[in-house]
Amino acid sequence: MSELTFSHIPVLLQETLDSLQIKPDGIYVDATAGGAGHSSKILEQLSEQGRLICMDQDPDAIQIIKERIGADPRVTVVHDNFAHIAEALSELGVDGVDGILADLGVSSHQLDTPERGFSFHTDAPLDMRMSQEGPTAADLCNNLPEAELRKILYTYGEEKNAPRIAAAIVKARKDAPLETTLQLAELVKEAVPAKGRRAKHPARKTFQALRIAVNGEMDVLNTALDSMFDVLKDGGILSIITFHSLEDRMVKQRFASYCQGCICPPEFPVCVCGRTPSAELPFKFKAASEAELEQNPRSRSAKLRCVKKLKDRYPE
Asked: Which is nearest to 228 in space by CA: 256, 255, 261, 259?
């Protein structure tokens, strides 16, 4: 894979850089560095004393990060899932960081490389593995019970036609295994009612659901949120870009829990729980501007949320 084949347009770039409030001599982590689009811009704001740690689970991404910015002495490249950020930083001897970015979107490279199997627009093996390891989307479609497939489509795709689609998958695989993206896309198109084919591609939610299941994305995010927050220094900032309602809801609710103070019943005259907020929200969320939407339509569903860790989290 050459450097030119890994195209990546960083989403909400300036908004993200602003949210991190970058200190030139700080330590920052791009926890899902992808094509190094955000990372390279963070690096531009760091002095010689600053440090940038780039993580990604995708071996293609790791290669391109190394090609683009890996030679810079301020950069450390880590091939791992961001759920393991605490362990990764411990191995590097880093006991706290000033800021973390996690862009939860599928990279342009993953979408535009047919053989990765993320897209329903081109025919390719039904893969969808970000790490390129473990069971594929085809494995799920061909081996899971119908009820489990239905649950995946309902839960991760919020697909109202989940029963129809799951039944169609199970019926089709009795004749021959599902092996390609267009096989699945056509099957979904035939399974949903005609009125469901008029707006966005009818397979969009099915592909999202299978991708989330294949990569364990919600479980990973659930673990990663607390791990990322815990490794922030006092005053450190965690910025996360989400692309669908499930992950955005989880991020929003977790950030709110960090910011929650006293949980005593309102009838108590004084606080007895002693709970104080661990963080504050610099802003509610930010979305792509009209100008960005014109340049990069994939940013249409992106939301940037940010939380700042408060000092003196554990007062005596």
From this structure: 255
